[in-house]
Amino acid sequence: MRRQPIVGVMGGATPDGADAATLELAREVGRRLAAAGALLLCGGRGGVMEAAARGAREGGGRVIGVLPYAPGEGEPNPFVDCALFTGLGDGRNYVNASTSDVLIALRGGPGTLSEIALALKLGVPVVLLDAWDFLAGLPALGALGDRPAVHVRSAEDAVAAAFRLIGYAAGGTFERPLAYPAMPDQSAVREQLLRFLEAAAEVQPPRGRRGDVRLPSPAPKT
Q1: Phi and psi at residue 129, in whole multiples of 5°?
Q2: Is 110 domain-assigned?
Q3: Can you tell me the distance from the alpha carbon of 158 to that of 33, in angstroms, rounded to the nearest whole number?
Q4: What is the DSSP letter of 16?
Q5: pLDDT value at position 103?
Q6: Long-range Cβ pairs for the range 109-115 (8 Å, 24+)
Q7: Which of 88, 101, 176, 203 pairs as cysteine with 92 (C-beta 3.0–4.6 A)?
Q8: 44 assigned to some structural domain
Q9: How many CB atoms lie within 10 A of CB 182?
Q10: Domain count for the chain
């Protein structure tokens, strides 16, 4: 499938879980990803997720929000273009890790750590941005074959490392199947994401402007 690369940006869910410097770092990551033509995937809520999504919007990009709620149980942050209501609770961390082509992890809590671990277990490369330094001393977690965890300190280096790990050149083409997991009751959400990716590939917004891709909501569960 020819599409934009999906870069997951993970971190603390609330402003209390990340300081101002971390939130600004996430925002810069979002802007840089959007400017290079990547899609940003996050958990769709506040804190680092909202800051990164805001940055992607400012950079003219689009944002996928993978929410723990079922439809009607909660709302995404205002910068999400494609809201996926999984109804999985914390199980949606597995969706975040497996759907991303590469993960950038900032400062966060146990949820972020679980996403790092799941990504490495699944063979998804991870960029650790100014956080999680203790993982550097754990070879079993720090690298899995050709899918390593890389430690960097700046948003510029994080985005460059993420693209290098998946073989993507900014503004170039990317071809890979969608890796949204085949989980019970997730087929409608997966189809929603596929339609979003197809529409985004056809209508690339000019850099610096938000592209508006409207997609139908997932079919209700029966």
Answers
A1: -105, 105
A2: yes
A3: 10
A4: G
A5: 97
A6: 109/12, 109/13, 109/17, 111/13, 111/43, 112/10, 112/11, 112/12, 114/90, 115/8, 115/10
A7: 88
A8: yes
A9: 9
A10: 1
Residues 14, 38 contacting (CB under 8 angstroms): no
Q: What are phi and psi of 24, to 5 degrees?
A: -70, -35
Q: Give the pair of three-digit tokens for residue 86.
A: 């999984």
pLDDT tens per residue, range 121-130: 999 999 999 9
Q: Running DSSP on this structure, what letter comes out for residue 175?
A: B
**Residues in Cβ contact with 66 at an 8 Å cutoff, skipping those fewer than 6 apart:** 41, 42, 43, 44, 84, 86, 92, 95, 96, 99
Q: Report yes or no: 83 and 63 within 8 Å, Cβ to Cβ.
A: no
Any domain includes 211: no
User: CATH number for the domain including 35?
Assistant: 3.40.50.450
154: Cα separation from own chain's centroid: 18
217 inside domain = no
Q: Measured between alpha carbons, how far is residue 93 from residues 2, 12, 67, 96, 213 in Å? A: 25, 13, 9, 5, 25
pLDDT digits (tens, 9 = 90+) for 40-87: 999 999 999 999 999 999 999 999 999 999 999 999 999 999 999 999
Which one-letter amino acid corresponds to residue 67?
L
User: Among all chains, which residue has been given the structure tokens 């009751």?
Assistant: 185
Q: Which residue has the tokens 């990547």?
A: 38
Beta strands in 24-108 (DSSP E): 39-42, 63-67, 82-85, 102-105
Domain that holds residue 69: 6-202
